[in-house]
Amino acid sequence: MNIAPNSYSRTRKRLLAAVASVAVAGAIGIGALTSGTSPVLADAVRVEAPQVPSFADVVERVSPAVVSVKVKAKVQPTADDGSDDQDGFDNLPNNPQLRRFFKEFRGFGDQGGQNDDGHRRFGHRDRGNGEPRPVAQGSGFFISEDGYLVTNNHVVEEGTAFTVVTNDGKELDAKLVGTDPRTDLAVLKVEGGGKFTYVDFADDSKVRVGDWVVAVGNPFGLGGTVTAGIVSARGRDIGAGPYDDFIQIDASVNRGNSGGPTFNLSGQVVGINTAIFSPSGGSVGIAFDIPASTAKQVVEDLMKSGAVQRGWLGVEIQPVTSDIAESLGLKSNNGALVSSAQDDGPGKKSGITAGDVITQVDGKDVASPKELARLIGAYSPGKSVDVTVWRDGKSQSVKVELGKLPSSDKRASADDKPAAPAKADTLADLGLTVTKSEDGKGLVVTDVDPDSDAADRGIQPGDIITAVNSMEVNGTDDVTKAMDEAVKSGRKAVLMQITRDDNNRFVALPVAKG
After folding, report:
1. Would you tell me how many other CB atoms lie within 10 Å of the CB of residue 194?
2. 184 a catalytic residue
3. Catalytically annotated residue among 184, 245, 289, 301
4. Which residues contact residue 365 at a Cβ distance below 8 angstroms, ignoring those fewer than 6 apart?
5. Which of 16, 360, 487, 505 has the fewest Cβ atoms nearer than 10 Å?
6. Of 252, 258, 278, 340, which residue is the catalytic one?
7. What whole-number distance in Å separates Cα of residue 9 and Cα of residue 21?
8. pLDDT tens-digit profile of 64-79?
9. Nearest 10 degrees: CA dihedral of 328, 329, 330, 331?
10. Roughly how many angstroms between the first and final C-alpha of the chain, as a whole number?
């Protein structure tokens, strides 16, 4: 028999695979080889395919609870000059950080109007009568029998009418119950329609990296689509907001999956699809989910009152670097360093001051500023909490009655900056040239040695040094004294409190011994 080289190769591989399968089957007692010169598979032998994980059962149970969400909004007419928004983010709030987030980590709810590069976009071309039309399409899922469902805020924002399409194709009108832009969550309610299949949130504290997960949603408007993968990472901070704590998965997630659920193999929601990292606009196997624990709390608040009321400490914070920890005598760089306490904030009223490092809230460890924001935000306004701070080389406890988180941060601003007097002094060991401020409180930096540690840590001319190691500074002698005391106590750095544009920050600078 004449077999072409390629055909021969394939045939040889199949024969070898068959022999190997028979050998395995014989070894485990499934079948046997007949006697003779050539081994062949006995007629009675049945080699079963190996058992592999199947998601069919869980998908069959949860799919009726997953829906597509269509959003309508009044269309804005195109600008008279004929220009069109080319980055596709014209309806986002005027927030540079938020715009950057949606360019790099793209929200993927929009199907109604996409420009050539596939960015999320709302409609521009007016029909002339201002009537609503579909401009976005995402996913969602029922969380109650009576029709409450969860989706993303960026799916429903700017919407005036909402339609839910169930797994069996029924279209149902829904009303917006409430949204929380800070966590990108929203709740809709379907009126009527009988009883709905719904799903529960999982205990995501038990979710491990490497666990199987299944994402169900409405990518590209295709309707119920299932993809599978694993949990790739936990606790991801992608710069979306103060409460970032995303679960990263590698299941294929695309535009239209926004607001859709990610399930564990028990059919519980472990996360809500909200963003992907994609240079191309399509899935590259890096998607981010809002954890179930965050979503559950926010959703409960939205269902009760249509809004989320978060506790407010009223302090500005920054990370504790290794240098800062060293300068303060801390054993680790965990915690959140208070750069300033707002005058009208509950923190300052309770005695929290700039330079304190918050290490615990009600006995819960604070690993970072993000962790502190999440912990405080989880409490209701008016709640009294015990805040543990590191101050003057020891831990202290401060009881704080939390306020209500303002809708926007109010910061003081000054039109005039203090002018530096002519006479300047040099802090040679630190690479700084300074002069006294006009009001006599602090030292104004007039020059920074570009090869110094101060320059490496971002100190700039115009910065005002107000304190060193919690000691107020009114002259260079105060700085020298603080540095000498740091050396005597075995510290390798001093902690400088810097004011710039009415904002405080702390910088640790190494000190030379001897």
Report:
1. 8
2. yes
3. 184
4. 334, 359, 371
5. 16
6. 258
7. 18
8. 999 999 998 765 554 4
9. 150
10. 92
